[in-house]
Design brief:
Blueprint lengths: L36 H13 L4 H15 L13 H15 L6 H13 L17
Amino acid sequence: MINRQMTPMTPLSDMRRDHSPAVRLGHDAVSAVKLSQQLTADIDAWAETHQITRSDAISRLLAIGLHASRPPAMTQPKLRDPVAIEQNAIQLIDQMLDPSLPADERERRIRRLVEGPAEFAGERIDLPRHSG
């Protein structure tokens, strides 16, 4: 069947329960989302910075967020060796730090996060206990 604009009509089999057309092959879905005023303002600012529309900004930000939260393709085996655990932690922290930091500052921050605050050293189970 053809409608008045001479475009193919959506067959009934492609209709969802809410009577909106399902996404057809080759067409992007249009989704309505409820956003707070602050979130909308933040998205608009991001869109303006990147010189794109709000719709494109939402799509890109969702893609960035989904990509960032994807689990690793291959799960790493559980580490039981304390040295291996520490090395893994150092590696992960190093990846998160700003690459423009000087090497000594990066090392200081990594050590601070791996070793933790001095006031908690007595609570750590991975450190030897000093009998007093």
